[in-house]
Each structure stands twice: as structure tokens, then as C-alpha cells.
From TrEMBL, chains A, B:
Domain Cyclic nucleotide-binding: 30-116
Pfam family, one: cNMP_binding
Lineage top rank: taxon: Bacteria
Matching InterPro entries: cNMP-bd_dom, cNMP-bd_dom_sf, RmlC-like_jellyroll
Family matches, as SUPFAM superfamilies: cAMP-binding domain-like (SSF51206)
Protein's recorded name: Crp/Fnr family transcriptional regulator
Protein species of origin: Flavobacterium macrobrachii
Length: 187, 187
């Protein structure tokens, strides 16, 4: 089960069995049911989460009660409220499970400890963070530039599996388009 | 001049004079005139740039010739086409100078060398990247959620100096609103 975490790290830097065991000892395991919350608005955010199995959505609810989806997360993805996690403030996002889900949890304390202890894990986290930064820049450009049809097609091309697992309403919310627009595009 | 780079790194991790000298030896210096390009679309992207003096904008031009601003950068900020820089592909962004500008340039080779040589500089780059990630997530939420007025006020609150230095047309392009809307908001 933890092998997919090892595979992810080893895409960046090779590990011995002992090193991986040491890394893994800094994580805790959590199992959640469909619809269960991993994080709710105003929670203190203890952990970053590596998804071993399942599907989650991280979203913001505005003062009119409208949901805006920040990200989805499935196997091999990380998810938390990063602003709250890195700054140790309370959550502004909600994260709940669209499917039964299993995650490996890493506290900020353990993350910093691991990074201080092992240069190669700090290296791996830096590289992951750089890739994440680029992905968010692409999403910003797509929000600024593309029309609904182009956004839809970009997402379909980038994450084909998402479309089989995520309801259309949520895809629409992620893309910042109306449900009706999306139905027209995907029919 | 390089002191502002040292100050930025030392907000995260203290450095000896010798360490900073070693770090600095991996940078090259570049001086640009107002309107000069730092990067043009389809260039190979050699460097990330730390702004010592001046003001730049990084933007995407769509196939109708419309500009979308990805970011501004002034003193103490970093700027490049990160997708092209990290993946070593050609630029999709343009970056040019709104004021006479001086930057310190760090090639990807030197960045990786520094990070491999000095754990503490890798640490500092990881922390910076995490903060950058959070800032981009906030911008995405603001694009998904906020109306033009709210976006304008958030930007004004976050970066008051930008407003004194950047023409209104460009602020409008950054916020993804029309020039007319912005004039109404800022009058």
C-alpha cells in the first residue's frame, strides 16, 4: 500500500529499504468513508495527505454558499489546505471524500524533521513543489485565457481518469463554468 | 546590491559570509532597459531571475493577440517562465521590463548544483516554493470566486506598491477584468 508513496519519491531520488522505512515511520494512516470530511473550514490543519486509495475534493464555500473547487486528489496525489498547513492557521477549505479513501498523513512537524534529517527527502519535496507551482500557473493561465470549451478539453486531456470518477457538476465547479455549459460541451 | 538576496535567504536560514559568497558565485548579473525583453516566447529559458531593482511583467499572448498577465515582479521577487525553466522547454510566456531593471540570474544547472552542495539552500528554495504555491492557490480562488471589485481590493491590500508603479491597463489584465471595469473601481 505504501509502495505508491515509495514509487513517487523514487521518481525523483532512489531510496534504500531502510531509508523508506524511516520515511514511512513519520506518516500515520487514515481510512475515510465516502462523504466523510478530511478537513473542515476552521479546523486546525495538522497534516498533508498522500492519497493511497480513493478520491477527494478540496473546495471553498463562499458567503453565498456557492462551492468553488480548488483541487481533486486521487491515488498518488497530495492534498491538504496548504495555506493553513504551511502557515499553521485554520482551514478556509473543506476537503471531503467522493469515494471511500485511504491516506497517509504527514504532520508539518514530521515533514520538517524528515527534511532536516535527510537531504534527499528535502530534495524530493522541493522538486514536487516546483512541479506543483507550474501546474497552478497553467491553471491560472487557463482561467484567464481559455473559454469553457478549451478548459474542458485541457482537463480531459490532462486527467482522463478524473472524468470517469467525478460527477459533472463538480467538474463544472472546478472549471468555473455552469453545469449547463458543461453539459453542452460534453454531450 | 546582492544584499537583498542575502536578506531573503536569511529570512529562512542564516548564512555565513563565506556561504553567501559561494551562493552568489552561481549567479550572473544582468541589466535591462525599460521595454527590453528578459524572455520572449519560444526562447529557450536558461535562468530564473531575482530582481535587484526594477519592475517586470510576465505575460501570455493568446492567438487573438490578447495579453494575459501571469505575474509582476519587483525588487526581492523571482521571475521566469517556470514551466520552461523547470522542464527545459521553450518559453510560452514573454517577460519584459516596465522600468529599467537589474536581475541576478540563476541557471537550472547552478540551481541544482547549489541545492546538491548545500542542504540549507535546498531548504530555503523548498520553503520559498511552498509559499509560492500557496500564493497561486489564493489567486486561483480569487479568480474562481471573487468579483472584479473584490479582486481589485485584495490586490491593492496585498501589494500596495504595485499600484503606484504599474499602469491601470496592466492591473486590469492581471485581474482578468476590462480596463473600463477597473477605471470604475479605482475612481
Amino acid at each position: 500500500m505504501s509502495q505508491i508513496l515509495r514509487q513517487q519519491i523514487e521518481k525523483i531520488t532512489p531510496l534504500t529499504d531502510k531509508e523508506f522505512e524511516y520515511i514511512l515511520s513519520h506518516f500515520t494512516f487514515k481510512k475515510l468513508k465516502k462523504h466523510q470530511f478530511l478537513i473542515q473550514e476552521n479546523d486546525t490543519v495538522q497534516n498533508d495527505h498522500f492519497v493511497v486509495k480513493g478520491l477527494l475534493k478540496a473546495y471553498y464555500v463562499n458567503h453565498e454558499g456557492k462551492e468553488h473547487i480548488m483541487q481533486f486528489a486521487m491515488e498518488d496525489w497530495w492534498v491538504t489546505d496548504y495555506q493553513a498547513y504551511f502557515n499553521q492557521t485554520v482551514a478556509t477549505l473543506n476537503i471531503d471524500c467522493l469515494e471511500p479513501t485511504e491516506v497517509l498523513c504527514l504532520s508539518i512537524h514530521n515533514r520538517e524533521k524528515l527534511c532536516a534529517d535527510m537531504h534527499k527527502i528535502e530534495h524530493s519535496f522541493r522538486k514536487k513543489s516546483n512541479l506543483g507551482y507550474v501546474a497552478l500557473q497553467r491553471r491560472i493561465l487557463s482561467l484567464l485565457n481559455s473559454n469553457a470549451k478549451e478548459r474542458y478539453e485541457q482537463l480531459l486531456q490532462q486527467y482522463p481518469t478524473l472524468f470517469q470518477r467525478v460527477p459533472k457538476t463538480l467538474i463544472a465547479s472546478y472549471l468555473g463554468v455552469s453545469r449547463e455549459t458543461l453539459s453542452r460541451l460534453s454531450s
